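G., before I forget:
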Amino acid sequence: MTNNFIILLIVIPLGTGILSLLLIDRLRLARLVGTLSLMSTAAISIYLLTQLYHDGAIFTSQMGDWPAPFGISVVFDSLSGLLLAAASVVALGSYVHSYSTMSDALERRYYHPLMQFLMFGVNLSFLTGDLFNLFVAFEIMLMASYALLTLGASRRQMSQAYKYVMLNLIASALFVISAGIVYGLMGTLNFADLARIVAEHKASGEPLPLGFRAVSLMFLFVFGLKGAIFPLWFWLPDTYYTTPISIAGLFAGMLTKVGIYATLRTFPMIFAQMEAGQLVMPIIAVSAAFTMFLGVLGAVSMHEVRRILAIHVISQVGYMVFGIAVMSAAAMAGCLFYMIQHMVVKCALFLCCGIMERYAGSDDLNKIGGVLKRDWLLGLLFFIAAMSLVGLPPLSGFFGKMVIIAEGWNGFWVLSMFGLLTGALTLLSMLKIWGYGYWGPPQGDHAEVPVGARRVRRYRSGYVGIGILVVTALFLGFGANPVYKIAFTAGDQLFNTYDYRVAVLGEDFAGPNIGPMRWWELPEVMSAEAPGDDASSLDSASVGSDALADGNSTDDHVTAPVEWPDFEGESHAAVDSNTPDTH
Amino acid sequence: MTLVLAICVAVILTVSIYLMLGRELKEIAMGVFLLSHAAHLSIIAMSRSPIRGMGEIKAAPILTEPGPPVDALPQALILTSIVISFAVSGFLLTLIVLTGRKTGTLNVDDLSREQMPTP
């Protein structure tokens, strides 16, 4: 369904960013404008979510009214809607928090415009309907994040920033190469059109082009690096450790999720289908287990609150990747729910840590203690957020983990066991922060600092920011039902891509409706293998590719979907007229 | 023509990976710049004519020999990508200059030794 209002979600942050460039010396006004912008994107995305709540409609907007595979499509479906709403709320919380925890000098260094440009990139990557614009959105987001990461340019920041920047540059270059190869192989970059080609190949039983497996592996690398999954997570703890706390909270909440979103959007639909799935899905499953488990082990071994929280991001990303690895509609819904709750909760924890640091003068658990005695409010907020992260039943984390682990139980029970173990260790590491930092006798520098409402007032906006996030987390826990309804719609639409294709490409060009697209359900020509029989399905894949090479028809059946009826007549003439020259 | 491009991409990639394995930030940055060049060149290879067989590179329209138009989309992609990588390269060079000024070194080993505990 066409709905051009969705473009507002991109235009508002962009416009506000440009406006705040002009307001760089008027901090109060810049804060006001920035807050209004974030509130309005949150309101718009929540309003649109209520619109698609009942029938799971997909809103599209074709830029310049060019029909879908040719122009730029912007798509707002349940998946992107939930993530947009969560991202706006998280950004709002950390933005409000930054009023009181960030120094004015830092704010004057273009914090406000950068924040808006970051949201511009994030919103665009959630909304865009094609691979190349996803790349552009990533670049916008990363450019803003590079600048935010080095905001203030302290010695500690500068000694770590290069890792993040270089790695992301390498990933971007690989992204461009892979996008180019996808265009070369399939002739299109539009997600819906790619999904149509995959569905047509599945329906007719033709194998996908040979390079497809390589491309999907490259995309797994690119998105995995952004999402910090198992072998590619090493950059994360160091970089999140050094930034101003509200920015660290925002990054921890949002940036890795954008990588996971890209995986969730493209892999079930396109890059993990048929032969590519046989290559990619086992890798995803193994890396999910390692990401979950090694991340939480790192967190248990650390002694600084920021590092514990940062390494926890990795462990939680593992759960999301686990949801993708199971790849059923419900597991992907669980993955989506877990993503949004994790964005909110993780950011809240970082923000709590920010105020705690101010009280205690350090985030080293050996040096602090007794924060609860001084400030019960902070303790309460931290406790709710921490228990949501762990996933105690009435709170939000429980529902996400429950669905993913229950879905994984048949077929992926090893992963489910890892998930449960990780949950227990998460509890352990959260209790460590609670026990050393909040409980116990006051210790260290802060013991002499006067207690009272004066300090609370000084960090008032900090508490408001954390409050927004904790209330959202509570809503996600107690109001999980409506959120899950939208999440299940999203899972269904990822699983059976027909709705998405119809919404973007139109009924006539949407390709066949072949029902749920589980990657191992291969067409009859190959063989319909159960998920366990990897060896034999790989054999069948190689048989298929041999046949493809023998037939020497690589170029024919991979033909671009773009039709060129006008050139058809001229082409032969042109070729004929050129042949004498070449000989 | 595709073969020539492929060889170019392979050579540039090799050089860039060699540079990226260095220990100096300047070398790594040069490697990253070269990597983006390799990416752009590899997209040109996708800019084949939709009419003549696949994988054949069409002459640019400014050449005297007339021919059917080339698929312009990869070129638009490259143009966008060049602009982006230009901006990012500028940022990266600034970052390296600042890193050098703040920490007094551009060697990766020295930088990783910088990890101080929280003050």
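Chain B touches chain A through 49 residues (CB under 8 Å). The CA atoms of residues 98 and 109 of chain B lie 17 Å apart.

More on Monday.
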